[in-house]
Amino acid sequence: KLSYILNCQRKNKLRLEQALSKYPKITFRNIPDKKGDSATFLDFFLEDEQTTRKVLKMFDKHGVGYAYWYDNNYHYLKNWEHIKQMKTAAKLAISLFKPPQDYAKLLMPQSDNIISRLISIQIRITWTDEEIQSLTTQITKALNEVF
To answer: CA angle at residue 67 from 25 to 85, to 5 degrees?
Structure first.
């Protein structure tokens, strides 16, 4: 049963990847072990943050679901005010030691550059052929409005 699930996930991911690969300004996350990929997300990059945000607006317009970790308050350090300010409900382990840097002023330009260009689309095993075709159509319409 697990191999069936993985095959469905990979098939759905491949169909989306094929639709996106028609756009030269899109690059994909490198997956060193494709056979070990659970295919739960399709991650891709655009050339810069400005273009990425244009694509996100078009995804919103066309009903394409996505994750944009750069603005996500839970998944990316730039938004973790509780760490930056060292204010948490319970003491953090780092509070027992002298912090190695001022987290409030921590800059990570290389990480920001990468994450600001990243869009993730969750891959569902339950998609029917019609649903995956509809999603690829929505993605194509959105991208055609940007490129």
So the answer is: 115
